[in-house]
């Protein structure tokens, strides 16, 4: 039931605030992260030397965002691997490796086979999944469910923000167990994450209409590029995937620092480029790097669409369009920056008259390899 929305995707984007809130619910008590599903695993978390995150598509981009939190907060080295690449390359894994799988459906065959492979190789597996009782969680040692609610549209939206939320909870939990975070630090991060639902809601209330209108003006565009650094990089990849998936426009995401190693050759006058801009206050070094990337592409005629923090005056002179997001801590920012990109992809596909819920050639869950 679309509940009065024009599409399931529109409904599911509108549910992004709840998806985060519901994934947090019951897992935070007085500033302390407590995930009952992970009870009894403290020895495991204390003893691991490495985490491998396996997933496909959007879930893998959530994993890339989670890597920053797991490394920064729990101080465990993390590799993020596409499930189908992981299992066919004889990876080095053992009992000191924790494999974290991420899957909305819990039925993705590539991810399932990778989890089985990891278990057989002696690794412990935790699954982050949105579907109760699905196959992947049943094959795992522990499950952290995302509570985004059923996701029907092929393009994953609310599950993505819920996956990042679950990974952040996991990172705080493991950081607490390993003693790499103090209770005060955990409480501070928890406060920042708890503010996310309201901040996403603010983007939807204040900007959705404008972004959809803007997307409509771009309906004839043939190619869109997305740039980001740090946690903005996986968000750039997610923005590009969503756009190609439902609007059939060529789209590519790049790490902004990679520009001069090749992709800048693509920039010609009029080329639209979305740039995820880090917070000037929270991440001043990254911010100035990204602003210079914007200047470089602008000098070559790119049409710059900046996703930037409210009040960021430094991007204004160089951007053709600014999509604002509320002020947030650096690791919280991706949960906000992705929202305008989801709205944009949906707006553009709608303007092209396409079926946003059921794009050609794709299935909601990919149960074949
Ligand atoms: O159900 P899963 O999370 O395992 O699905 C993984 C990908 O197939 C999925 O995220 C896909 O990339 C989406 N259609 C992207 O919007």
TrEMBL record:
EC code(s) of this entry: 2.6.1.16
Keywords: Aminotransferase, Cytoplasm, Glutamine amidotransferase, Repeat, Transferase
Catalytic activity: D-fructose 6-phosphate + L-glutamine = D-glucosamine 6-phosphate + L-glutamate
Native source species: Microbacterium alkaliflavum
Domain SIS span(s) in chain numbering: 41-180, 214-359
One of the record's GO molecular function terms: glutamine-fructose-6-phosphate transaminase (isomerizing) activity
Location(s) in or outside the cell: Cytoplasm
Broad enzyme group: transferase
Subunit text: Homodimer.
Interval of the full protein contained in this chain: 249 to 617 of 617
UniProt keyword annotation of Repressor present: no
Coiled coil ranges: none
Identification of the protein by name: Glutamine--fructose-6-phosphate aminotransferase [isomerizing]
Catalytic machinery residues: 364 (for fru-6p isomerization activity)
Main function: Catalyzes the first step in hexosamine metabolism, converting fructose-6P into glucosamine-6P using glutamine as a nitrogen source.
Regions that span the bilayer: none
Statement: the UniProt record of this protein carries the keyword Repeat: yes
């Amino acid at each position: 039931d679309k509940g009065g929305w024009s599409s399931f995707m529109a409904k599911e984007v509108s549910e992004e605030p709840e998806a985060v809130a519901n994934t947090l619910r019951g897992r935070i008590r007085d500033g302390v992260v407590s995930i009952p599903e992970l009870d009894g695993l403290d020895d495991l978390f204390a003893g691991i030397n490495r985490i491998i995150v396996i997933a496909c598509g959007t879930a893998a981009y959530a994993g890339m965002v989670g890597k920053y939190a797991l490394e920064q907060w729990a101080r465990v080295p993390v590799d993020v691997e596409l499930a189908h690449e992981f299992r066919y390359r004889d990876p080095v894994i053992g009992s000191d490796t924790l494999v974290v799988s991420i899957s909305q459906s819990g039925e993705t065959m590539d991810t399932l086979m990778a989890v089985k492979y990891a278990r057989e190789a002696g690794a412990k597996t935790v699954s982050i999944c949105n579907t109760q009782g699905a196959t992947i969680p049943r094959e795992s040692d522990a499950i952290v469910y995302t509570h985004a609610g059923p996701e029907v549209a092929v393009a994953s939206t609310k599950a993505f923000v819920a996956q990042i939320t679950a990974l952040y909870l996991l990172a705080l939990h493991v950081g607490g167990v390993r003693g790499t975070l103090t209770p005060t630090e955990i409480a501070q991060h928890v406060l920042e994450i708890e503010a996310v639902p309201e901040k996403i809601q603010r983007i939807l209330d204040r900007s959705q209409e404008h972004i959809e209108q803007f997307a409509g003006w771009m309906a004839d565009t043939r190619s869109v590029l997305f740039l980001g650094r740090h946690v903005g990089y996986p968000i750039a990849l997610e923005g590009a995937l969503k756009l190609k998936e439902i609007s059939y426009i060529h789209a590519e995401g790049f790490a902004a620092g990679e520009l001069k190693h090749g992709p800048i050759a693509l920039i010609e006058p009029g080329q639209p480029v979305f740039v995820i801009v880090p917070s000037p206050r929270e991440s001043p070094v990254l911010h100035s790097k990204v602003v210079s990337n914007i200047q470089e592409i602008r000098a070559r005629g790119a049409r710059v669409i900046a996703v930037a923090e409210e009040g960021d005056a430094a991007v204004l002179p160089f951007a053709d369009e600014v999509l604002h997001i509320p002020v947030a801590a650096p690791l919280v920012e991706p949960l906000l920056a992705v929202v305008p990109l989801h709205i944009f992809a949906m707006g553009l596909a709608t303007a092209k008259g396409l079926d946003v819920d059921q794009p050609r050639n794709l299935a909601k869950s990919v149960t074949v390899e």
